[in-house]
Give the backbone structure.
Amino acid sequence: MSVLLHSFGWQTRRSILAWVILACGHASAHDFKAGALLIDHPYATPTPPAASVGAVYFRTLKNTGQKGDRLLGARTPASASVEIHRSMMDGDVMRMRQVDSLALPAGAELRLRHGGELHLMLVGLVAPLKEGDRFPLWLRFELAGEREVSVWVQKPREGAAAHKH
Ligand SMILES: [Cu+2]
């Protein structure tokens, strides 16, 4: 009995702790739901004044459902088009390739952070992306359909290498 009571107490404390972390996290992060998908913190890094491309990242894309889904594409008023890009080594050179879609298997949690392997490329920027800007982005998923999210333009926090094009 004492074990049961103890574990109940721990559960309660843990959920209070989780709530506090969530409440605090919302000051600097934001997330969106699309069906079973959790789109955590869409962000873009500021671009130089004459840049014609930019990149959108996510803290994570998570599929909490039982079925696999797929990101098929995206659109935004901030650029002429949006491409899904994967960086890969080609000999000694890092190159970006456009991919048709991005698989989100059931239970998957993909990291799409700057300096990582995957990002969305904004091709034909309408205007440079400035720190503090926010712009809408419509993500198109095979199963979850289309979902509008707000992208926050912010400097990379960990001082990671800038995205090269
Ligand atoms: Cu790219």
Q: What stands out?
A: The CA atoms of residues 41 and 70 lie 18 Å apart.
